[in-house]
Amino acid sequence: MYEYKIEARKQRNRAGRRAVATQGSTNAGRARAPRRAVSHEVIVSTALRMMDTHGPDTVTIRSLADSLGVGAMTLYTYFRSKDELYDAVRDHALALAPPPPAEGSWDDRVRAILMGLHTVLIEHPSLIQLMARRPLAGHEPAEITEAHLRALRDAGFDPATAARVHVTLLYYLLGSGMWEVQRIADQHDPERRRQFRAAVEAMSARDYPTVVAMAPELAQTASGPGQFEFGLELIIAALRQRLGDGGDGDGEA
Asked: Is 34 a member of any domain?
């Protein structure tokens, strides 16, 4: 009887060891299971979507990896740093804009470049910050800058003035884009619309007669593609006048 109990205990121990070994093998198999494959295109498009939703500053290599279902080290095989990732996302978004025209009058080329960029900025708000951070890094920004400066030089602006005009138009593009993105968000938020109406109604017609009288017009033109184009045409008209007046744009192209 005693020997029988010993043998039974040995059998139970062997069964337990086999179960542990089997479980360990299963866990090891899980650990070695390949992670979901990703591509450069999938990474940057996912990062752009996350940045548009939550803002560029909220997106890290780790949060992006979690969203993709891969390890952070997988992304480091594509991008050595967060700056490289940001540059890739910016180039990906800018590539969605129409290519800069190589022919046509200087003002038509400038208009086409700015209108194309404005459309992409409104569709992808994170691009505003990405462009402002590193305006010349990467292929796409350099290509657009080359086309823009070439158009201004072809117009007759000297290098110094062409550079100033380029930066002025960039300021207008990014500033108006930031304004319009916020206004679009306000229009889709009932509480913000209510607050705007309350602020206008609270204004004193005695202290601010012009603002109160023009409140409907101001609300109508606060955002929208028509407003950006209107301002751009004002700038282009001023540039034409400067060239015609023989001002600083008289340098050799």
From this structure: no
